[in-house]
Amino acid sequence: MDAGGGLDSSYWKDLVPRLAAATGSKIITYDRSGLGDSDEVPGPWKVENAVSDLEAGLRELGVTRDVILVSHSQAGEVATYFTRAHRETVSGTVLVDANLPQLYTDGTIARLMALSTPQVEAAKADPSTKENRRLVATAANYVPAHRAYHRVSWPDSVPATVIVSGKTPFEGSPEDARLWREAAAAFVEAGPDRTLVTAEGSSHDVPVDRPDLVLGEIEKMIAARG
User: Fold this and answer.
1) Phi-psi bin for 30: left (phi > 0), alpha (psi -120 to 50), beta?
2) Phi, psi of 101 (to 5 degrees)
3) How far is CA 2 from the centre of its chain?
4) Which end of the chain has a smaller Cβ tally under 10 Å, C or N?
């Protein structure tokens, strides 16, 4: 279970015991670099590093097969690249209001950069906090990283359930909310064994607002993948 940008493993604290009890599965949560108890890594945030960290952590735990990734928001990018590199390891995914490749056209990237610029500039002016340093690191190579991500495809051999929030991360921007929903639909339509589920009434924090829905979709994926 991998939380979104700026969030650590504690994001899942209410779901983990319920999911373990319901499924009997081993549940793994972790803090990506710079989050929670994990060390910061200097320089721009790179998805390749996040994928390498996840790979190393699973290998250390002896987990090399039958993995179902549950990935929220920014962690959808990690899930995409990890699944492409380790199709033999990942048996299914539940992408919870996740960043998906279809969203990141040049036009959308420009819109998102413009929306975040004031916050990033404020963070640059005060690099004393871990949160601000993380924000600056994420913004540093945002444009080339997401242009590359837009060209990445999900492997057809790995099923995916996409949960999209009713309100999306862009409650105040109808145009961006529309693009977010359309990207989720386009992702599902682009390959086999993909399911789209809408968390009606939910904010971007679907695991908080609609925990039963998230748990139910994870349980379905576990049951389907044995």
Assistant:
1) beta
2) -55, -35
3) 7
4) C
Phi, psi of 164 (to 5 degrees): -110, 135
| Phi, psi dihedrals of residue 72, rounded to the nearest 5° | -110, 135
- Report residue 62 CA to chain centroid gap: 23
Whether residue 80 contacts residue 128, with contact meaning beta carbons closer than 8 Å, is answered with no
Which pTM value belongs to this model?
Answer: 0.96
DSSP H or E run through 90: strand 90-96
User: What contacts 194, CB < 8 A, 6 or more positions away?
Assistant: 154, 159, 160, 161, 162, 187, 188
Q: What angle do CA 80, 17, 203 make, to 5 degrees?
A: 55
- pLDDT at residue 100, as a whole number: 98
Instruction: Give residue 9's pLDDT.
Output: 97
Instruction: Return the CATH architecture of domain 9-225.
Output: 3-Layer(aba) Sandwich (3.40)
